[in-house]
Amino acid sequence: MATPTKVSAVEEIANDFKDSTAAVLTEYRGLTVAQLKELRRSLGQDTKYSVVKNTLTGIAAKEAGIDAFDGQLSGPTAIAFIKGDAVAAAKSLTDFAKTNPQLIIKTGVFEGNNLDAAGVAALAALESREFQLARVAGVLKAPMSMLARTADALRVKLEEESGAPAAPAAEEAPAAAEEAPAAEAATEE
C-alpha cells in the first residue's frame, strides 16, 4: 500500500530525473559521511547527489521513462542528478572513484541515452564546455587577427613605397601641435 510519504518521494525522484540533463547511478557502500560530503562538494551546485531507496527509484525511473537503471538498483544506492555541465560532474565522480574505490559507478543516462560505467568514464574524458567554447572562440579569432596583421603590413609597405613615414597619422598630429606653439614663440621674440 502506497503511503503519502512514498508517493511524494517517488514524485520527487521522478522530477529530478526529468529536470536533469544526466543522472549517474552509484553504489556508495563503505564511504563515510565525511567522504559523501566531500563528494557532494566536488560535484558543485548544479548536481544533486541523493541517497535513494531502490524500489522507489525503480518506480520513479519508469515514470520518467528511464530504463538504464533496470537490474542495477541493488545495495546502497545514490544518484547524481546533473542539471549543469555533465562532463564536469562525470569528471568529479570518476576522479572521486579513483581515490575512493568504495564508490562504484554503475550506470547513467545522458540526454536520454543510456550509459554503462565505461560510457560515464568516456563522458568524463571529454573536454569541458568552457574549454570547447574557448577553442571555438580561438578558431574564430585567428582569421580576424591574421586579416588585421595583413592589412597593417600592407599599410606599412605602401607608406614605405610612397616615402611617407611609417608611423600612423594619429601619432604625428600631437607632435606637430606641440612644435607649432614653440615656433610661434620664437618668431615673436
List the helices and strands and how they pair.
Elements: H1 4-19, E1 22-27, H2 33-43, E2 47-52, H3 54-64, E3 77-82, H4 86-99, E4 104-110, E5 113-116, H5 117-125, H6 129-162, H7 169-188
InterPro entries: Ribosomal_uL10 (IPR001790), Ribosomal_uL10-like_sf (IPR043141), Ribosomal_uL10_bac (IPR022973), Ribosomal_uL10_bac_type (IPR047865), Ribosomal_uL10_CS_bac (IPR002363)
Family: Belongs to the universal ribosomal protein uL10 family.
Keywords: Ribonucleoprotein, Ribosomal protein, RNA-binding, rRNA-binding
Describe the structure.
The protein is of the alpha+beta class. Helices cover 61% and strands 15% of the residues. It has helices at 4-19, 33-43, 54-64, 86-99, 117-125, 129-162, 169-188, and strands spanning 22-27, 47-52, 77-82, 104-110, 113-116. A 5-stranded antiparallel beta sheet has the order 2-3-1-4-5, sandwiched between helices. A hairpin with a 2-residue loop joins strand 4 and strand 5 (113-116). The radius of gyration is 31 Å and the shape is elongated.
